[in-house]
Each structure stands twice: as C-alpha cells, then as structure tokens.
C-alpha cells in the first residue's frame, strides 16, 4: 500500500507541468485568426512561437514539475532538475550523427532523480568548513553529476530506446479500437485512486512519434496533435462525450432523484458540478457523488467510457485538448480535429443514455446519492472556507499529524504520521465527498474544485498558530444552533455561547479535555475547565434538574481530569421524554469573554466523539502578552 501512496504523489506531480498547456493551445488557436486583414501581420507569428515554445519546453517543464511535486515545492529540487536537463541537452546534443532530443520521459526521469536526491540529502552534513555545500545546497551538485553520467549512458543506449519507442507506438496502433477501450476503462477506474495521470501520461506523452516540419521528433498523442500529426487524437477524442455530456447528465439525474425538501440545495451544488465538467472537463465532483455510494455503478461508468472511446476511434474521430475534454478545449482546438463536430451528436446521445441509466439505477437500488438522505454535505460553503479550515485541520488530526499536504484540482493529497487520526464523519460533514486511504499515511480527501483554496487556508491556520480550543461532539445525534434550544435562557445565550445537540443515544462524552469543576446533584450537567481556562458546561436535557437524578448515571466527580471523548454520564432518553422533558443538550462556554472568535461546523448528524464540531480562538496568545 505504501507503493500506491507514492504513486499517487507521483501522479499529482505529473499534473503540475500540464497547467501550462492551456496557454499553448490558446496561443496556437489565436494564431489562426485573420491578423493580416486587421493590419497586425506579425501577431500570428508571435502567437505561434509562444504556443510552440511551451510544447518544445515540455521536457523541462516536466522535470521541474515532477521535482517540485515530489518534494513539496522544494526550490533546491526544482533548480537541480533544470540543471540536470541543461546538462543532458548539452552533452547528448554534442555528438554528431546521433538524433537524441530531450523528451518528456527524460524530463520525468531527471525530475524523479532530483526529487529523490533532495529527500535523501536535504539534511546532509559536511565538515564545518564545507557545510555551505551541505543540506539542500548539495542536491544541485549531486544531481549535476548524476545527469552527466546519465547523459553519457544515453549516448550509448539511445538508438535501441528510440527503436523501442517506435515499436511501442506500432503496438498501440495495432491494438486499434480495443487498445483505446482498455485505455479509457483503465483511465476512468484509476480516477478513484488519483492515479489516472500515470496511464494518461504514457499515452498522451510517450506513445507514437511524429517528425515536425522543423525536423523535431515529438512523442505522445497530445504533443503530436498540436504539432499537426493527422493521426493524433485517438486517445483524447472519446473523452469529450463523457466529460461534456455524460457526467453532466449524471448530475441532472442526481438532482432529479433528490428529495423535494433538499432539491434546492442539490440543484445549486450539482448544476455547478455539471458546468465544471461540461466547460473544463473536471469530473470528480460528480463522480465522487456516487463512487462511494455505488462502486459497481462507477465500474459500469468506466466500462461505458471505454466503449465510447472505442466508438469514436472506429468512426475515425480525432480531437485533442491541452487540459481536459471540456467545452473550452473542444472549441479552441476544433480546427485541428478530424470529424470533431461528430462528437456533439454522439455526446447528446451519451448524455440521454447516462441520464436514464442513472435515474433507473438510483431508483432501482435505492442508492443514497446526495439529497436522498439526511446529512449529505450539500451546503454552499465556498465562502466559508476560511471559516471551516480550522475544523478541517482538526479532523485531519491537527498540524502535528501532517507530514506533507498538497492539492490537485479536486482533492487534498496528504501524507500523515497516522491516518487513523482522521475523523471521516467530521470531514464528510465539512464538505468532503470522500476519503481514500492509500497506505503508508497517504490519504486523499475529495473536496472538489475548492481543494487548493482549502489547502491555502489550512496553511494559514498552521502558520498563525493561534491559541485555539477544538471541541468534539459529546453525543451521537444531530447538532443544532443554540437559537433552536427550547429554552429562552440557553437560546438567549444568557448562560454562554456554543451549540446544542439532539441526542439519539443515552451517552455523553467529554467534548474537551480538562478538570471537572462541577457535577450537578441531579447528575444531568457537568462543568469542565480546560487547560486554557475555558469553562465548558454540558447540560443534558431541558428542565431535567426536576428529575432529581432519575435516569442519570454519572461516571466522573469534581476534581477528576478527563480527556476528549471520555464517558461522562449515561442517561435514559425514554425516561426523559416520558417525563415531558426535552432531551436537547446544550454545550456552552460559560466565560465567553475569553473567546475572540467562534467557528461552528454545519448543523448535521454527528457521532459521539466526532471531531470538528466547534472551534474557538482565545482572546490572548500563549504567554498572555498580545491581545487579539
């Protein structure tokens, strides 16, 4: 499993350099406009050069991107990768009679070498008089020698490697439509693990060779397509009907099958997800809505994706993209396609088929897609990202549990000291569509297209290092705002500020750690003072003091030290209700003047001990000196 975790990190690193390709595609598309008629003749040449240079620089971009992606954006690793590429290009290009050009594969290899070397030598120590060249500064020196040795070896083995690449391209071509089907099916399945970039990289940047008019050889379906290869685009064209029509149709089916009371929220969320897929080709927000609820349906989706790609291949349709198969890329690159217009009617048919298939499946198998059950993370919370970041960080296990945190388009990619500290229910209530454990502490949390923003806000929280107290849920049930407590004293925040819970089971646990400072004689309420000086009251039920302890069993006494999640008391819900009392349980801070700011999780179902239900920042920093 550790291998899978390393592969998902490598797959994320491969995405970094591809971020430059949309600009290249736009430049090349704009170069075809009638600039001569507008009196701006040189503009076409400028745009062409700007687009072509990005494709020619792909090996360097991949070397840099892979090195940065594997090391958490370590500058020393990136500089080392670029130095290695310059050395490789200079050495291999100095031998007459050998046509050795830097390729994306070479860039990836040198990027891996730079990233691995950084991890091995970032703490490397030399004698004191040489320590200037120790640590990260040693990495460029070491990688330079490795690149020189690698270049000399490549001079000897380049001819058979080039022959092998040609054979690989011919094998892919010989596989025909079935090979395209296998690519489409495998690519879609690996989306679940965040490893789809591994298989796409091989076909989009390695399989097949084409010699440009300038005499340069480019490899892979994507560079060949933009270099004018009339046979390129087979491994990209079939993705357009899926991303532009199939996934949006699934989103519409999910909206249609949602409960009427939740349909407005579902519509708002999934119209956005459908547009994201249609316009940009970002599909995970839709796919993760049913991937965990019905994995077999995702496998069927992957199978259909492969069949659609096979169909477009057999029809001779060729199309390409610089980023993904969305409408933006479709129209920008349509002028380079072969029969590209046919993807639109095919896509409409695919969309209709997907819509009815998923509506039938959701109804037939009662699939709990968002909007069909309580507790679905459907809140429109993009503006709440700074507000929720502290809660997400707590659900991850806190900053001390994070070794590395990166984000791709739709998910946080984390390496943790202990992935058992993850609170999955809390993450789901905070908007996560799914959590994937890949072993070795490697975890992916799917937050959709807000993932990068979430990462940035979490980093800000970690850097601020404010004096913060995090609260766990004391009961299993549903969290509600204090305003909904059926008691004017608590609802009016006269006792203090906080939240409340409607318990489903008769157990209450400590929401925070600290010392028990009060146990009510009626055994229905407990007060805890945290190490930071907050006084927290947990009050089970409204007017339950009148029960005089009947139905309550206390497990702590005044002066006891408790830890978060420790059992405080048991209570008989049936007895409370039969006595005509409300079981609503407020959890309030009775000295709220000590609190500078409050953060509350969404008011949804919670489990006992679930992290991230409330977070507060204290009025003073550690040391008590600076007021906030």
UniProtKB/TrEMBL annotation:
Instruction: State the organism named in the record.
Output: Thermobacillus composti (strain DSM 18247 / JCM 13945 / KWC4)
Could you confirm whether the keyword Methyltransferase appears in this record? Answer: no
All residue ranges annotated as the PTS EIIA type-1 domain in the record = 487-591
Q: Which InterPro entries match?
A: Dup_hybrid_motif, Glu_permease_IIB, PTrfase_EIIB_Cys, PTS_EIIA_1_perm, PTS_EIIC, PTS_EIIC_1, PTS_Glucose_EIICBA, PTS_IIB_1
User: Which cellular components does GO assign to this protein?
Assistant: plasma membrane
A GO BP term here is:
N-acetylglucosamine transport
Name the principal localization, coarsely classed: membrane
Pfam families per record: PTS_EIIA_1, PTS_EIIB, PTS_EIIC
What is the protein name stated in its UniProt record? PTS system, glucose subfamily, IIA component
Keywords in alphabetical order:
Cell membrane, Kinase, Membrane, Phosphotransferase system, Sugar transport, Transferase, Transmembrane, Transmembrane helix, Transport
**In this protein, which residues make up the domain named PTS EIIC type-1?**
1-374
Molecular function GO terms recorded: kinase activity; protein-N(PI)-phosphohistidine-sugar phosphotransferase activity; protein-phosphocysteine-sugar phosphotransferase activity
